[in-house]
Structures are given as C-alpha cells and as structure tokens.
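Re: your question about ABC transporter ATP-binding protein

S., sorry for the slow reply, the queue was backed up all week. Below is exactly what I fed in.
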Amino acid sequence: MILSIEQLSIHSRDKTLVHEVSLTIRKGEWYALVGQSGSGKSLLSQAIGQLLPPNLRADGQVILHGLDVLNLPSSRARSLRGGTLAYVFQDYQGSFTPFRTIGQHFDEYQKAHDVTSATVRTQQAVEALESVGLDGRFLPRYPFQLSGGQLQRASIAIALLLSPELLIADEVTTALDSVSAHRILQLLAAKQRQTGCAILFITHDWRHVRRYAQQIAVMKDGTIVESGSSKLILENPQHDYTRQLIQAAPVLPVPTEVKP
Ligand SMILES: Nc1ncnc2c1ncn2[C@@H]1O[C@H](COP(=O)(O)OP(=O)(O)OP(=O)(O)O)[C@@H](O)[C@H]1O
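Result:
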C-alpha cells in the first residue's frame, strides 16, 4: 500500500471543509477522485504533501509510504515531494517561472534532490524530456516558447524524474484541448506502466475516469459519499449523487487519431 488516509479532516478557523475522509491507494493503482467544484478534492490532495494553505489545518492520519505525513517536520515533507510524491497541476503555466528556461527548472529540482553532478543532471533531463515525446532542444527554451501540451509534458517529465511512488494529477487536462488531453492521459498511462507509480487522478471528466481508473472515490461537500472499484461504481452506483454525476457526463468518442 502506498497511501492510507484515515479520518482526515481539514478545518479553517470557522469551518470544516473536509470531513473524516478515509481512502487507500495501492502500488501502481490509478485512483480517480471525482466530484463537483468545491467538494474538497484539491484540499485533500494538498494535505497529502503538507501543502495546505497556512490558514487551514488537518487532523486524522495520512500515511504515505510508511511515513506519517501530518506529523513530519516541514523540511522532511519538502524532501518527500519530488522523491516519493510528485504533483502535476491543471495550471501548468503556473508551475513554471516565466523567466527561467525549462533546463533551469529541471536543474533546480534535481539540485533540491541532491543530484550533484551537472553532467548527470543534463543527461537525466534529456532522457526525461525524450520519455514524454520532447527532446534536449527544449532545455534552453522559456515556458512561453512551448505550447500548452508541450508544457504539460515537460511538467510530467519533471514530476516523474525521481520515480515517485505516487503522482497526484490534479485536473491535468482541464486547460488542454481534447486531443492534447487524450495524448497527455495516454502518456500518463504509459509512464505508469513503465514506472509502476500510483496515480491519484483528480478530475471532473467521467470519460477519463471510465477509460483509466481502477478505483473511484466520489466526493461531495467535503466527504467521500461512495468509493470502490471502477466497475462497481460505474455499473452499479449506490449514491444518488454518483448517479447524477454519471448521468450528467457526456459520452463522447475518443478522437480517432489518438486511439491507442
Ligand atoms: N485557503 C482556504 N481557506 C478557506 N477555504 C478554502 C481554502 N481553500 C479552499 N477552500 C474552500 O474549501 C472547499 C474545497 O475546496 P477545493 O479547492 O478542495 O475544492 P475542489 O473539489 O478541488 O474544487 P475544484 O474542482 O473547483 O478544484 C471550497 O469550498 C473552497 O472554497
């Protein structure tokens, strides 16, 4: 088991935003967390990496790869991110500093995780870019010189650089057109097969859930109303809210040119 969350609650000063959530993610699993806007999906994912905004506090238990995350010193939690745990976000532009090249982003990340040799850093960066369909020519480029799909690929390359056990993919396709979105998800699926990492996949899009998820948890108003295997939830949803979400989801064909 890679991640075990028990009775996790997240509070602001005057409100509880996430209520006693429990879930378990196994090694190599594609776990979809689905729910309407504001249901608490992002807060849950932030708590896993000790990334909650400072006005919020979490209680309960988050065990990631044997480590009790909520009680880790912040320096230890920082080294966990990137190593054991990595994030890819919807706002891939916000993940990059505009005046730093792609190569400098790699470099910074590698130095923060003690890759001391410059030669090794460049070699790793080029291999990582190649593994997501880019190449070393992207290293000297600035983020604005890449398309949305290319930037999201670069952010996945950086996130997977140090072989995390768990990749949190938070709405990674929302800002992309549908062809780029399918390519990115195919890429994630391929990388998952290669590396064996588990993916916590946060999404509104049931087409992607149907296609990739092995486990699903449905969140509403800060609680998980239903969870289980993808087959079970999709074929026999128990909760009204899940049924509504599934019924409201468009069933569109996957663009033919990116069908696996
Ligand atoms: N720093 C904060 N302080 C107070 N409330 C917050 C804070 N961050 C988020 N919230 C509130 O917590 C709730 C859950 O937010 P969260 O971002 O986790 O939702 P979400 O399910 O990820 O939504 P979306 O799909 O739109 O990203 C929302 O009501 C949000 O307004």
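The chain is about 35% helix and 25% strand. Residues 178-195 form the longest helix (18 residues).

Happy to talk it through on Thursday.
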